[in-house]
From TrEMBL:
It comes from the Bacteria. It holds the Pfam family AAA_22. One of its GO terms (molecular function) is ATP hydrolysis activity. InterPro entries: AAA_22, ExeA_AAA_ATPase_DNA-bind, P-loop_NTPase. Residues 42-175 form the ORC1/DEAH AAA+ ATPase domain. It comes from candidate division WOR-3 bacterium. This is AAA family ATPase. Gene3D superfamilies: P-loop containing nucleotide triphosphate hydrolases.
Length: 272
């Protein structure tokens, strides 16, 4: 038996991996999504969502990916996740071209750009709006990459940009964009995703428990307050604390999460 069976969950409520079933529409996340959608729908070109580790940037990107994918007759969407900082401008351009649907068999940057331009023109004829979302955009560290992004944003018609970029990254993303001042000036919307407040933290925890199949209260009011205090309202850390708390309660054969459990596992995790 694991703690899911013990507490009556149909699915693990506090997994560390992004799962849209558990998306919690806090005021912060709702506002970010609405503004990013506005940029895409109005063809404004470039928007940036900045936030510290664990604040929910990736979940928002997945939520938007699902939304755009559900409207494939309108949007041509792709999501690139940057896993290291050594990528080149040529590599990124080729990835963008392929994600847009172009058949690229060359590594020559000029030829790749030609493929991108051709594909954007094709998508325009099909009345589709290309959207390229880049997660972990803080890994894009070269001025050359920024210059190439700016070059793609130069492709416009009377209605706006033929391609929209949504960047998701940690605070250093902004400094990286400043490597090319003209690109930085073209940011249409720049958002900072702040941690949840106490009310939203409690709502977030209860929402995930409900999605997992738990209707009755499981955390005491004091325990919820302590989760907020130790997590500082960061969803990823909330998940980690709550997951460990459920495991601890299961091991101790307790049916309720109280302050003592949160205090114990937070101490074990070195949280203050």
């Amino acid at each position: 038996m694991d703690y899911n069976n013990y507490f009556g969950f149909s699915v693990t409520p506090f997994s560390s991996s992004p799962d849209e079933r558990f998306y919690y529409n806090s005021p912060y996340h709702s506002k970010a999504i609405l503004k990013l959608l506005h940029v895409v729908e109005q063809r404004r070109g470039l928007a940036v969502l900045i936030g510290d580790i664990g604040t929910g940037k990736t979940m928002i990107s997945r939520k938007l990916l699902d939304y755009f994918s559900s409207k494939s007759d309108i949007f041509e969407v792709s999501l690139l996740v940057i896993i290291h900082s050594e990528i080149t401008a040529g590599w990124l351009l080729k990835k963008i071209a392929i994600q847009l649907g172009a058949k690229v068999e060359t590594d020559n940057k000029i030829d790749i750009i030609g493929h991108v331009y051709k594909q954007l023109s094709y998508l325009k004829e099909k009345k589709k709006r290309p959207v390229v979302m880049i997660d972990e955009a803080n890994m894009l560290k070269s001025r050359e990459i920024m210059e190439e992004l700016r070059g793609l944003l130069n492709i416009v018609d009377n209605d706006g940009h033929l391609i929209t970029f949504l960047l998701f990254g940690m605070p250093e993303t902004e400094e990286n964009l400043k490597l090319d001042p003209p690109l930085y000036e073209r940011i249409s919307v720049k958002l900072t995703l702040n941690p949840l407040d106490l009310e939203s933290t409690i709502g977030y925890i209860n929402h995930r428990l409900k999605v997992a199949g738990r209707e009755q209260p499981l955390f005491s009011d004091g325990a919820l307050q302590m989760v907020y205090n130790f997590s500082k309202g960061k969803p990823r850390l909330i998940n980690t604390i709550c997951d460990n708390a459920l495991l601890e309660a299961f091991i101790e054969k307790k049916k309720f999460i109280d302050e003592d459990i949160i205090k114990q596992i937070s101490s074990d995790m070195g949280l203050k």
